[in-house]
Amino acid sequence: MTNAHQCGDLFPEFFSSPLEVSLVGKARRERLVEIDVIDLRQYGTGPHRQVDDAPFGGGPGMVMRVEPLAAALEPFVDTRRVLLTPAGAPLTQHTLERWSEAGSLTLVCGRYEGVDERVADLYIDEEISLGDYVLLGGEVAALAIIEGVARLVVGVVGNPESIRTESFSHGLLEEPQYTRPADFAGVRVPDVLLSGDHAQIANWREEMRRQRTAERRPDLFDPDGLGKSPGDR
Ligand code: JAH
């Protein structure tokens, strides 16, 4: 199945190498995914192709105008239109799996202090955030989504078993991994991994996933624990 993506953006060069190398580049060359980058500047208004303007009500910074985004998004029907914004719902593996089966995704990258709210009201299906921090624009978040979806699409086609058995498919963090040498500067690989006892190894790995998740991500380990202070857990 070919998964088509459009990426609306003011800095199209931002995407050049990330979309050419690694799994994403190979999947594009093999036509397993199609990814097009759209330069929003070409839809800017006036002789300077302006895409931003001062905010109504005053305040610092500029806001992305609705007309260029309306013009850029109008042709894309039969696609899921996603705006990357710190005000969006948090991105999860479940969201990536849903999109990997959706056929076509259109990722809209805001810049400046934000995007006129009418863009979201009229042209956007989902607003998504990578996490609780502010970047300069949505491009890095868009690339994260492209990688996350592409590996699932390619995984379905090529079917490597690893794809759906990694972090978050059990809802737990992954166990620590080791490779040779068994002793590096006196720090040894856990003996159980060298034992050849596959039942014991599986038990150890499961225990490590539980320990790490409880320690590092109590929100994943016990979703009811969310909102409690660390001392309450
Ligand atoms: C920043 C428009 N959660 C990641 C993320 C996504 C988008 C933006 N920042 C962070 C952003 C400025 C303007 C979007």
Task: Provide the gyration radius in Å.
Answer: 22 Å
Strand content: 15-25%
Major β-sheet annotation: 5 strands, parallel
Mean pLDDT: 91
Hetero groups in this structure are:
(6-phenylpyridin-3-yl)methanamine
Walk across the major sheet and give the strand order.
Answer: 2-1-6-5-7
Per DSSP, the total helix count is 7
Any key phrases for this structure?
single chain; 233 residues; alpha/beta; 5-stranded parallel beta sheet; two-stranded antiparallel sheet; 7 helices; 9 strands; 18% strand; elongated; disordered C terminus; binds (6-phenylpyridin-3-yl)methanamine
What does this 3D model show about the protein?
This protein has 233 residues and is an alpha/beta fold. Helix content is 32%, strand content 18%. It has 7 helices and 9 strands. The chain has helices spanning 22-29, 66-73, 93-100, 117-123, 139-158, 198-216, 218-221, and strands spanning 3-9, 33-39, 52-53, 63-64, 80-90, 104-109, 126-129, 183-184, 187-188. The strands form 3 sheets. The chain has a 5-stranded parallel sheet with strand order 2-1-6-5-7, sandwiched between helices. A hairpin with a 2-residue loop joins β8 and β9 (187-188). α3 crosses α5. The longest helix has 20 residues, at 139-158. The chain is elongated. Mean pLDDT is 91; it is low at 229-233.
